[in-house]
Amino acid sequence: MLYASMKSIASYIPPTAINNTDFEKTLDTSDEWITKRTGIKTRYFAQYGQQTSDLAYEAGKLAMERAGVSPKDIDAVIVATLSPDYLNMPSTACVTSFKLGIENKAAFDIAAACSGFIYLLSIAKSFIESGTFKQILIIGVEKLSSVLDFSDRSTCVLFGDGAGACVISATKDKNASILDVHLGANGRYQDFLCVPRTHTYFGQETQFADSYVQMKGNETFKIAVKTLVSDVKDIMEKNNIAPKDVAFFIPHQANLRIINAVGENLHFTEEQIVISVHKYGNTSAASIPMAINDVYEEKKLQYGDLMLLDAFGGGLTWGSALVYFGGKTL
User: Partner of 316 for a Cys bridge, out of 9, 78, 82, 189, CB 3.0 to 4.6 A?
Assistant: First the structure.
């Protein structure tokens, strides 16, 4: 039987570091206020002229190098992002695949906000195990600086830019496979975390909306903790996995308080929980692969290590995954 396997992991961090103190110059905020409420100390923003596809290109190129594959070996490129180069078309996946030298192959985007990478894993797993494709490049990427209102201290200090990518290939080794993925969504809470857009109607004056990230923080926090704990317990029970069996618990890096609350409820140790939110902020669809890459580059992640991933984001969407690492170590 063929299984889908994460053969590589890579990330790209833009060069411009923004510290909490940088916001003190323009906002009524402080390093202490931001750190206490979020755990974030630094985030990175794309340079002028850098597009979302440029960030995705850098991560995708390194992921292919680490997997030992060339552009001709990739059957599909799938990108998760809420901050694409264009509004819906062409997809960021199309632009990125061209930049990577991947042509005449399937390429498309998905929109699942901060849960995007979990959704990517589910899609890639299905394509590989059905025999539709043999090797897929998946990329979670965000240029969130392009959709932030820098006068709103409740949102603009939370987010950062970045990209994370991996190659998903077929394997016969179940202990190197994407074991299981759970997905969920509920549009009832669509306005809890969203980016509104302007709608135009023939014969009527255009009403402009602020196309920036808008969030109901307290409401989102409460639902996130409850939903993530429940979803992770479900996937572990279904697969007969105990906390001690997990090498790394890698949650979406949105807020340190959420991560700690979920980790405590699930009885994971500090050594098991991977935290990178203090370095990068919330990079939405890129946050989980960026966090995995940190563990990989620290030479902690080994072939066959079991990772438990979970995420919660706008939609509202959520998901969890049990993934054995199937790549070579550095």
Answer: 189
Considering the segment(s) 3-172 as one domain, its CATH architecture is 3-Layer(aba) Sandwich (3.40)
CB atoms within 10 A of CB 239: 12
- Global pTM reads 0.94
Task: Tell me what pLDDT residue 207 has.
Answer: 57
On whether the CB atoms of residues 123 and 108 are closer than 8 A, the answer is no
Helix, strand or coil for residue 33? helix
Per-residue model confidence as pLDDT tens digits over 89-130 = 999 999 999 999 999 999 999 999 999 999 999 999 999 999
| Beta bridge partner(s), residue 45 | 16
Q: Which fold has domain 178-325?
A: Peroxisomal Thiolase; Chain A, domain 1 (3.40.47)
Determine which one of 94, 252, 255, 293 is catalytic.
252
Q: Which two tokens stand for residue 144?
A: 């969130």
- Pairing of the two strands 162-171 and 3-6: antiparallel
| Span between the terminal Cα atoms of the chain, in Å | 28
Catalytic residue flag (residue 252): yes
Distance CA 295, CA 271 (A): 11
